[in-house]
């Protein structure tokens, strides 16, 4: 029996995955299917090392569905890292279904016994996934370049003040760490990456 495994990735700048979960839930209800398990993490799409995505792949059985809202939730990786991730997904026998890739939706209902349809879907979607993965990476690189240009211009004009500090998040991190929670557990509770917790601790150690 194939299972639908939904993957939600929220970056450190977009910590709330509830909207995406609602979108995926509405989609599966519309299609008359149900999500068997959810995998949620705070991580950048540019990072190849993602704990929950790796756990999803390990849990999967051939024919299971990896459901995402958009392809860029799955990857903003470089080509090399994307090829490795795609290889792991294919080796696990997972079929990717993304809300922004309509041709993938049929994978929700194709039976394991329908080998011809399944192979045709896999071939078409592999090509389209590669294209969307490349677009997602280019979009990320373009935004980073524009951001760097904007910062450089602001510095030249004397207007750059750096990224504003999220004081509420910093306060919560400090409280949890003082209560003895680990870096990873603190990150999970607050809804940020472990690297953010480490930056908060480093900032707190600096003399006033």
TrEMBL record:
Gene3D superfamilies: Resolvase, N-terminal catalytic domain. Pfam families: Resolvase. SMART domains: Resolvase. Keywords: DNA integration, DNA recombination, DNA-binding. One of its GO terms (molecular function) is DNA strand exchange activity. Residues 3-158 form the Resolvase/invertase-type recombinase catalytic domain. CDD domains: SR_Res_par. The keyword Nucleotide-binding does not apply. PROSITE patterns: RECOMBINASES_1 (PS00397), RECOMBINASES_3 (PS51736). One of its GO terms (biological process) is DNA integration. The active site is at residue 11. This is Recombinase family protein. SUPFAM superfamilies: Resolvase-like. Signal peptide: none annotated.
